[in-house]
Specification:
Blueprint (H helix, E strand, L loop, with lengths): L16 H27 L11 H25 L4 H4 L7 H24 L7 H12 L3 H28 L5 H14 L6 H21 L2 H25 L2
Helix pairs in contact: 1-2, 1-6, 2-5, 2-6, 4-8, 4-9, 5-6, 5-9, 6-7, 6-9, 7-8, 8-9
Protein backbone atom coordinates (compact mmCIF):
# COMPACT_ATOMS: atom_id res chain seq x y z
CA UNK A 1 0.00 0.00 0.00
CA UNK A 2 1.34 3.45 -0.86
CA UNK A 3 0.17 6.92 0.02
CA UNK A 4 1.93 8.58 -2.89
CA UNK A 5 -0.24 9.96 -5.64
CA UNK A 6 0.36 8.06 -8.88
CA UNK A 7 0.28 9.56 -12.37
CA UNK A 8 -3.44 8.81 -12.80
CA UNK A 9 -4.46 9.63 -9.26
CA UNK A 10 -4.92 13.14 -7.91
CA UNK A 11 -4.13 13.72 -4.23
CA UNK A 12 -7.04 13.79 -1.84
CA UNK A 13 -8.24 17.02 -0.27
CA UNK A 14 -5.97 18.45 2.43
CA UNK A 15 -6.64 17.93 6.11
CA UNK A 16 -9.51 20.00 7.51
CA UNK A 17 -8.97 23.06 9.64
CA UNK A 18 -9.21 21.39 13.06
CA UNK A 19 -7.12 18.41 12.00
CA UNK A 20 -4.50 20.72 10.50
CA UNK A 21 -4.19 22.69 13.72
CA UNK A 22 -4.04 19.45 15.73
CA UNK A 23 -1.23 18.08 13.58
CA UNK A 24 0.75 21.32 13.95
CA UNK A 25 0.33 21.28 17.74
CA UNK A 26 1.37 17.62 17.83
CA UNK A 27 4.48 18.38 15.78
CA UNK A 28 5.49 21.14 18.20
CA UNK A 29 4.94 18.91 21.24
CA UNK A 30 6.86 15.94 19.83
CA UNK A 31 9.66 18.22 18.65
CA UNK A 32 9.91 19.92 22.05
CA UNK A 33 10.05 16.57 23.87
CA UNK A 34 12.81 15.32 21.58
CA UNK A 35 14.77 18.57 21.93
CA UNK A 36 14.48 18.40 25.73
CA UNK A 37 15.83 14.85 25.67
CA UNK A 38 18.73 15.91 23.47
CA UNK A 39 19.57 18.79 25.79
CA UNK A 40 19.47 16.48 28.82
CA UNK A 41 21.83 14.05 27.08
CA UNK A 42 24.18 16.89 26.17
CA UNK A 43 24.30 18.06 29.80
CA UNK A 44 25.06 14.56 31.06
CA UNK A 45 25.85 14.37 34.76
CA UNK A 46 26.42 18.11 35.07
CA UNK A 47 22.99 19.67 34.55
CA UNK A 48 22.77 23.44 34.50
CA UNK A 49 19.91 25.85 34.14
CA UNK A 50 20.47 28.28 31.26
CA UNK A 51 20.29 31.95 32.16
CA UNK A 52 18.48 34.33 29.83
CA UNK A 53 18.53 33.37 26.17
CA UNK A 54 21.25 30.74 26.06
CA UNK A 55 22.65 30.38 22.55
CA UNK A 56 23.63 26.75 23.07
CA UNK A 57 20.16 25.82 24.31
CA UNK A 58 18.57 27.66 21.37
CA UNK A 59 20.87 25.88 18.92
CA UNK A 60 20.19 22.43 20.33
CA UNK A 61 16.47 23.14 20.52
CA UNK A 62 16.22 24.28 16.91
CA UNK A 63 18.45 21.63 15.33
CA UNK A 64 16.87 18.81 17.33
CA UNK A 65 13.21 19.81 17.13
CA UNK A 66 12.80 21.06 13.56
CA UNK A 67 13.55 17.75 11.76
CA UNK A 68 11.11 15.99 14.11
CA UNK A 69 8.40 18.58 13.44
CA UNK A 70 8.90 18.26 9.69
CA UNK A 71 8.80 14.47 10.00
CA UNK A 72 5.48 14.55 11.85
CA UNK A 73 3.92 16.91 9.29
CA UNK A 74 5.35 14.91 6.40
CA UNK A 75 3.79 11.77 7.85
CA UNK A 76 0.47 13.61 8.12
CA UNK A 77 0.72 14.59 4.45
CA UNK A 78 1.43 11.01 3.45
CA UNK A 79 -1.54 9.78 5.43
CA UNK A 80 -3.69 12.15 3.40
CA UNK A 81 -2.40 10.74 0.12
CA UNK A 82 0.11 13.47 -0.75
CA UNK A 83 3.81 13.55 -1.32
CA UNK A 84 5.18 15.82 1.45
CA UNK A 85 7.01 18.08 -1.01
CA UNK A 86 3.75 18.68 -2.86
CA UNK A 87 1.73 19.21 0.31
CA UNK A 88 4.30 21.70 1.60
CA UNK A 89 4.54 23.38 -1.86
CA UNK A 90 8.32 23.04 -1.92
CA UNK A 91 8.88 23.71 -5.59
CA UNK A 92 11.14 25.92 -7.65
CA UNK A 93 10.09 29.59 -7.51
CA UNK A 94 10.16 31.89 -10.51
CA UNK A 95 13.22 34.13 -10.81
CA UNK A 96 11.16 37.30 -11.13
CA UNK A 97 9.23 36.50 -7.96
CA UNK A 98 12.49 35.79 -6.13
CA UNK A 99 13.98 39.16 -7.12
CA UNK A 100 10.81 41.02 -6.18
CA UNK A 101 10.66 39.21 -2.82
CA UNK A 102 14.22 40.26 -1.96
CA UNK A 103 13.37 43.91 -2.68
CA UNK A 104 10.28 43.66 -0.45
CA UNK A 105 12.23 42.13 2.43
CA UNK A 106 14.93 44.81 2.24
CA UNK A 107 12.32 47.58 2.23
CA UNK A 108 10.47 46.14 5.23
CA UNK A 109 13.72 45.76 7.15
CA UNK A 110 14.70 49.36 6.31
CA UNK A 111 11.32 50.75 7.41
CA UNK A 112 11.23 48.91 10.73
CA UNK A 113 14.87 49.68 11.51
CA UNK A 114 14.01 53.34 10.98
CA UNK A 115 11.00 53.01 13.30
CA UNK A 116 13.17 51.38 15.96
CA UNK A 117 15.76 54.13 15.66
CA UNK A 118 13.21 56.95 15.79
CA UNK A 119 11.46 55.40 18.81
CA UNK A 120 14.77 55.15 20.69
CA UNK A 121 14.93 51.35 20.64
CA UNK A 122 17.93 49.23 19.77
CA UNK A 123 17.77 47.76 16.29
CA UNK A 124 19.07 44.50 17.76
CA UNK A 125 16.86 42.99 20.46
CA UNK A 126 18.58 42.13 23.78
CA UNK A 127 17.77 38.42 23.48
CA UNK A 128 19.69 38.30 20.18
CA UNK A 129 22.76 39.72 21.89
CA UNK A 130 22.45 37.23 24.77
CA UNK A 131 22.15 34.28 22.38
CA UNK A 132 25.10 35.46 20.30
CA UNK A 133 27.40 36.02 23.27
CA UNK A 134 26.59 32.76 25.07
CA UNK A 135 27.02 30.74 21.88
CA UNK A 136 30.28 32.55 21.13
CA UNK A 137 31.70 31.93 24.60
CA UNK A 138 30.81 28.22 24.35
CA UNK A 139 32.28 27.85 20.86
CA UNK A 140 28.86 27.27 19.32
CA UNK A 141 28.54 30.44 17.23
CA UNK A 142 28.76 28.61 13.88
CA UNK A 143 26.03 26.19 14.88
CA UNK A 144 23.85 29.03 16.15
CA UNK A 145 24.22 30.63 12.72
CA UNK A 146 23.17 27.40 11.01
CA UNK A 147 20.22 26.98 13.36
CA UNK A 148 18.90 30.53 13.09
CA UNK A 149 19.61 31.30 9.44
CA UNK A 150 18.78 27.97 7.80
CA UNK A 151 17.13 25.39 10.04
CA UNK A 152 14.59 27.62 11.80
CA UNK A 153 13.29 29.29 8.61
CA UNK A 154 12.86 25.93 6.90
CA UNK A 155 10.93 24.51 9.84
CA UNK A 156 8.71 27.56 10.33
CA UNK A 157 7.90 27.93 6.64
CA UNK A 158 7.03 24.26 6.22
CA UNK A 159 4.83 24.52 9.31
CA UNK A 160 3.11 27.86 8.69
CA UNK A 161 3.21 28.64 4.95
CA UNK A 162 3.37 24.96 4.01
CA UNK A 163 1.25 22.64 6.14
CA UNK A 164 -0.91 25.19 7.96
CA UNK A 165 -1.53 27.21 4.80
CA UNK A 166 -2.58 24.09 2.90
CA UNK A 167 -5.10 23.13 5.55
CA UNK A 168 -6.56 26.58 6.29
CA UNK A 169 -6.81 27.98 2.77
CA UNK A 170 -10.36 27.97 1.42
CA UNK A 171 -11.64 29.64 -1.79
CA UNK A 172 -12.90 33.10 -0.97
CA UNK A 173 -11.20 33.15 2.43
CA UNK A 174 -7.58 33.46 1.33
CA UNK A 175 -6.98 36.75 3.16
CA UNK A 176 -8.48 35.33 6.35
CA UNK A 177 -6.02 32.43 6.24
CA UNK A 178 -3.06 34.72 5.52
CA UNK A 179 -4.04 37.01 8.40
CA UNK A 180 -4.61 34.16 10.86
CA UNK A 181 -1.36 32.41 10.01
CA UNK A 182 0.61 35.66 10.26
CA UNK A 183 -0.94 36.35 13.66
CA UNK A 184 -0.14 32.85 14.94
CA UNK A 185 3.43 33.17 13.66
CA UNK A 186 3.86 36.55 15.36
CA UNK A 187 2.56 35.17 18.67
CA UNK A 188 5.21 32.47 18.46
CA UNK A 189 7.85 35.20 18.81
CA UNK A 190 6.99 36.46 22.30
CA UNK A 191 10.65 37.32 22.95
CA UNK A 192 10.16 40.60 21.02
CA UNK A 193 8.47 43.77 22.27
CA UNK A 194 5.28 44.98 20.61
CA UNK A 195 7.09 46.74 17.76
CA UNK A 196 9.19 43.67 17.06
CA UNK A 197 6.09 41.48 17.04
CA UNK A 198 4.41 43.96 14.70
CA UNK A 199 7.33 43.55 12.33
CA UNK A 200 6.96 39.76 12.53
CA UNK A 201 3.24 40.09 11.82
CA UNK A 202 3.82 42.33 8.79
CA UNK A 203 6.47 39.92 7.52
CA UNK A 204 3.96 37.11 8.00
CA UNK A 205 1.42 38.95 5.87
CA UNK A 206 4.01 39.51 3.15
CA UNK A 207 5.18 35.90 3.25
CA UNK A 208 1.58 34.71 3.16
CA UNK A 209 0.84 36.87 0.12
CA UNK A 210 3.88 35.52 -1.72
CA UNK A 211 2.86 31.96 -0.80
CA UNK A 212 -0.65 32.57 -2.11
CA UNK A 213 0.29 34.45 -5.28
CA UNK A 214 3.34 32.39 -6.17
CA UNK A 215 2.28 29.02 -4.81
CA UNK A 216 5.76 28.26 -3.49
CA UNK A 217 6.91 27.70 0.07
CA UNK A 218 10.46 27.48 -1.26
CA UNK A 219 10.17 31.17 -2.10
CA UNK A 220 8.96 32.14 1.38
CA UNK A 221 11.72 30.01 2.92
CA UNK A 222 14.33 31.93 0.92
CA UNK A 223 12.76 35.20 2.09
CA UNK A 224 12.79 33.98 5.70
CA UNK A 225 16.44 32.95 5.40
CA UNK A 226 17.29 36.46 4.20
CA UNK A 227 15.43 38.04 7.14
CA UNK A 228 17.27 35.90 9.69
CA UNK A 229 20.60 36.39 7.95
CA UNK A 230 20.14 40.16 8.16
CA UNK A 231 19.31 39.82 11.86
CA UNK A 232 22.46 37.78 12.49
CA UNK A 233 24.62 40.33 10.65
CA UNK A 234 23.10 43.18 12.67
CA UNK A 235 23.66 41.22 15.89
CA UNK A 236 27.29 40.48 15.01
CA UNK A 237 27.94 44.18 14.27
CA UNK A 238 26.26 45.17 17.54
CA UNK A 239 28.27 42.71 19.65
CA UNK A 240 31.63 42.98 17.90
CA UNK A 241 31.78 46.74 17.32
CA UNK A 242 29.27 48.56 19.53
CA UNK A 243 29.40 46.73 22.86
Amino acid sequence: MTFAAGPNRAPSTPWGIMATVAWVVLSFVVGAVFASACFALWQGDNPRLPSGYDGVLITIGVIASIPVQIGVLGWAARLRGWLPLDYFALDRPKRGALIFSVVCILLIDLVFNALLYVSGRDIVAPFQVDAYRTAQSAGWLFWLLIAIVFVAPLGEEITFRGFLFRGLMRPGYELHAIFGIALAWALLHMQYDWLGMLQIFVLGLVLGWFRWSGGSTTLTTAMHVLVNFEAMIETAIKVEYFS
